[in-house]
Amino acid sequence: MNYLVARESGEAVYSQIYRALRREVREHYKPGDCLPTEPQLAELFSVNRHTIRRAVDVLLADGLVQRQHGRGTFVTAYPIEYPITKGTRFTENLASSGKAIESTILRKLVVPARGGVAKNLEITSETSVIWMETLRLVEDLPFCIISHFLPHKGFEFVLEKFEGGSLHRFLNQMGISPVRRQSLITAQIPVAEDAKYLQMPANQPVLRVKSVNVNAENGQSVEYAVTRFRADRVQLNIALG
């Protein structure tokens, strides 16, 4: 990589360097690759380090790279488009695009329903619910953590038989057809455990999606799910209508 900047073009020098670096990253770098150091880039473009830093700052704002103190600047995984529709299923949706999906059950317990869990499942507080957490990887990289809450009564088979993969496909096989009734999306700083599993900085926000899924046959609430996506690895596509 060796470029000359057009100083008389009317476009700021840092902007030209940013465009060149962005093209280079998209065409020749993979997620996890390290960019040349600022002194190396300054020499390649024949500019000072301040100009290079401005260009790299724009790459950072685009989410294409991430600085790691003491290590360098690394290319991030490109955002994956994830649709939120009435019938979205995580595993089938991403697997259909040819991506390698892995799901790990982190915990599966019976707990008393409180607060938003009881409200969204339309049950009384302290009623027993199944609390299950799954970690989803896409192309071997942490993508999201999902907290699933289901009524315990009538769903005991989830505790006994569900061993991973698509929960909604499993429920369909058991005669229950979950469809999304609503989703609420917010950004927040992750709790320490989530940051650890998602392998992300604790001060970088996640996208949190709280969803209520009901049985298509009778409208009964069957699952309240709270998903925390790595914000730098997802682009949510909300389908209207």
Structure description:
There is one protein chain. This protein is α+β, with helices and mostly antiparallel strands and 241 residues long. The protein has 2 domains: 13-75, Arc Repressor Mutant, subunit A (Orthogonal Bundle), CATH 1.10.10.10; 80-238, 3-Layer(aba) Sandwich (Chorismate lyase), CATH 3.40.1410. Helices cover 29% and strands 34% of the residues. It has 8 helices and 10 strands. The strands form 3 sheets. A 6-stranded antiparallel beta sheet has the order 4-5-6-9-8-7. The protein has a two-stranded antiparallel ribbon with strand order 1-2. The protein has a two-stranded parallel ribbon with strand order 3-10. Strand 1 and strand 2 form a beta hairpin. Helix 1 (13-28) crosses helix 3 (49-62) and helix 2 (38-45) packs across helix 3 (49-62). The mean pLDDT is 88.
Sheet with most strands: strand arrangement: 4-5-6-9-8-7
The total domain count is 2
Give a short account of the largest sheet: 6 strands, antiparallel
Return the string of H and E elements.
HHHEEEHEHEEHHEHEEE
At the first level of CATH, the class of the largest domain is Alpha Beta
On the 0 to 100 scale, the average pLDDT is 88
Question: What is the percent of helical residues?
Answer: 25-40%
Secondary structure tally, helices: 8
Enumerate the spans where pLDDT stays under 50 for 5 or more consecutive residues. Answer: none
Q: Count the strands? A: 10
Query: How many angstroms separate the termini?
Result: 47 Å
CATH architecture descriptor text of the largest domain: 3-Layer(aba) Sandwich
CATH topology of the largest domain: Chorismate lyase
**How would the global form be characterised?**
elongated
